[in-house]
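Internal ticket #5521
Category: modeling
Description: The requester needs a full-assembly model to guide mutagenesis choices. All entity lines are attached below as received. Residue total reported by intake: 263.
Assigned to: D.W.
Attached entities:
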Amino acid sequence: MRVPILKQGDYLIASVQDSLADADLLQLSENLLTQVGLFHSRGVIVDVTALDVMDSFACRALRSLASAIRFRGAETVIVGIQPEVAFAMVQLGLDLAGIRTALDVEEGLELLGNGKDG
Amino acid sequence: MAGELRISVRTDADIVTARQKGRVLAEPLGFRGSDLALIATAISEVARNIVVYAGCGEIILDVVRDGEREGIVVIARDEGPGIADVEKAMQDGYSTSKSLGLGLPGAKRMMDEFEIVSAVGKGTTITMRKWRRSHEDRPYRPAGT
Ligand SMILES: Nc1ncnc2c1ncn2[C@@H]1O[C@H](COP(=O)(O)OP(=O)(O)OP(=O)(O)O)[C@@H](O)[C@H]1O
Ligand SMILES: [Mg+2]
């Protein structure tokens, strides 16, 4: 598996390691969906700190991932979008269509915790 | 100069290779990080279009010079179905594959120059250039190189 998924309490953390090919992203969605059911996770964090490009395909894949996770009763937070990647995404015209984002994994966990318990 | 780099594009892994090679070519020219991300993302979009719409094709990367200016040229070429209405294809949101329709107009925004030539039944060639912003950030090169 190209993207390791870590279970931390009620949450899953997937850390994208490096430049992902399309197939890896689709595989990640599948794995996360399965594991959300397996562990009854309430939230998923996708850490894209290592990604140097977020193109239209990757963006669309993350959007689908987040809405599929949502159908399974959990929330998704994308963390670690690098400043130059964010800049390029805006130029390209992408938006994450309501997927929540946070600066890093810690803040992502905080966001998920607050959303559910608060 | 080392000469052009050709990457044949057929699979999603080739898309990753093409954008990585673009970055490797552009970095020593002194492009800043945000420009490197723009170049890599633009390459990714035109390479993906080759895979999705034409099946296969190639990306050609090279350094370009124009007097004091230095930059990178990216050519995406395929002999696929071509685009019937290029003007429409260049509009945000226009997609024949129910995608976002952002690849072509986005690539144009991300690069400094963008030309597209397409003929139905013949194929598509996109030529895009990005210039390093100013000669002040020119990388140090030892004399004689
Ligand atoms: N190399 C190509 N060969 C044939 N048709 C193409 C090619 N590139 C683009 N097109 C056509 O132009 C349209 C617009 O391309 P563009 O990349 O902007 O959007 P998209 O690929 O549909 O969506 P996105 O790139 O946002 O996922 C495509 O839907 C397709 O019909
Ligand atoms: Mg496209």
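Resolution: model delivered.
Comment from assignee: The interface with chain A takes residues 12-13, 15-16, 19-20, 23, 33-34, 36-38, 40-41, 44-45, 48, 92, 99-100, 102-103, 105-107, 109-110 of chain B (CB under 8 Å).
Ticket closed.
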